[in-house]
Amino acid sequence: MPDQTTDLIKQKIEIADFVKQYLELKPAGKNLKGLCPFHKEKTGSFMVSPERRIWHCFGCGKGGDIFGFLMQYENIEFVEALKVLADRAGVTLQQIGTADQKKYEVIYEINRIAKDYFKSGLSESSGTLALQYLKERGLSDITISEFELGVAPDGNDLLMRHLIKMGYHVDQILTAGLIAKNDRGMYYDFFRARIVFPLHNHFGKVIGFTGRIMPGNENPNVGKYVNSHESPIFNKSKLLFGFFKSKNFIREQGAAVLVEGQMDFLMAWQDGVKNLVATSGTALTADHLKLVRRIADNLVLSFDNDGAGRAAAERTIDLAQQNDFNTKIIIFDDPKLKDPADIVLAKPGQFAELITKAVPAMEYYFSYYGVNDSDIGARKKAIRQALAKIKIISSPVEQQHWLSELAVKSRIPESVLIAEMAGVKVDAQPGAPVVAPETPLEIGPATRSEMIVQRLLSLSIQDSVTADMVRGQLDIFPAAHKGVAEIILAGSEAKIPLEYAGIVNLIYLQSGFDSKPGEAEELLRHLKKIGLIERKKVLQQEIQGAEQDNDQGRLRRLLEEYKDLTHTQEGAG
Fold first, then answer.
1. Boundary (domain end) residue, out of 209, 234, 259
2. In what helix (H) or strand (E) does residue 28 lie, and over which residues does it extend?
3. DSSP 3-state assignment of 234?
4. What is the number of H-type helices and E-type strands within the chain?
5. Alpha-carbon distance 454 to 459, whole Å?
6. What is the CATH classification number for the domain harbouring 134?
7. Which of 29, 101, 193, 229 meets the CB 3.0–4.6 Å disulfide criterion with 177?
8. DSSP secondary structure of 289-302
9. Is the pTM higher than 0.90?
């Protein structure tokens, strides 16, 4: 998409008004300030600059423009953010085209109508069995309504006929993934005689469905759960059930609890656990983790208490460890209760307690493999299995921690374990590491003098008297910072070279923090001291060089300058 399109969108949408929809902002000089939505803090360090159309948090370091904010907050990709903001700004995206735009809109509308159709079925006589099943599983009327559960009737093409009556063509319904075509070329409803769970995107729009076979109709030759066919708006490998409801709770707690299916999610949600996600009929993927990793570092896993559940847990742990999550797993105390839905139904409130008792993934592995087995053959095998898991952890610090723990539990010296791990082979990585997207304001760590310069220049933006004071003492600024200083002191209309854009934007955002009486004067004194210290270090090296060259004239001049600097430094206190 051409830059002029995104620029036009940013011009049409006032960034401060947009961000205010998500958090409270208060005036802070030319900027606005609030509590950062991306990490916990008590004192606001999140700044928005209406003038420069940017935002930045000085606590967690995240920042960017209106697109970056929406992508971070809603956990969406750039293309999706572009569509949302273009629609809000009234900007037509030429590259998408009118025909394609209409195709997307039609698919969304077909799914919405299908959702209403399935939902209404629960209140009819044909939905009695489905409603009875949901109630027996423990779901309340409130939860059923909140997540818009429904039922697909036992008919060959009832939904298709309904949608055709609403004005949609068979090809459109097929594209939406709600019907299929048999060998004879006949179309039929994909969901028939099934309890239906709508699947929503991050903005709460229905994009597909999961259907559970009706109780009593279970058949080993028929899938118990099926999803809509994938469509231009639905990709099950990128969708987490309930995420549109739970994302803010996950962000607030910095942790996500991953369960296996819709019923586990709904029962746990009803029981008060809100920072949940669930997969929808597919194994967890790197794309799923990417959604969560943007807002949380911690992942708590809850899988069925059986062989299949443990195998799924192992695959998920490995993927999470490779993507730098702090991963824990819930251990079920009662073998009769195999999943969160069972626990909530039998013992309300206990699932939340089990979450607090979740154990780190590597501790789970140590116990599961039996790394302290008395039999040396069994212990060697178990240790190698544990080392394979440690080897795929992305963080060297965490690797070292678990090597130390394994040494204690196995009674094998850490040096021996390291040697053994070198020869351990691990499976190919199932997914690339998840990394947060770069933002326009990312810069390297600042030195003390850089921090002082940035603060002085931000104070200059606030106050013209300070600006004049700083302008008069540019000679004490490090040479590398004079270019930035001249741009800031020239005012907001100054042309900003690309290489200075990030730091200039950062300084403008810093200008929203309150100043203290005499702060600028004190900072200038500190900057001068630092300059004197740095110059003396340079002189010391030059004096050594003059001595080695036996250049007496140059040596005298350098010693005199060093003496003068020492007097100046002492006079400055």
1. 234
2. strand 26-28
3. strand
4. 25, 16
5. 9
6. 3.90.980.10
7. 229
8. HHHHHTT-SEEEE-
9. no
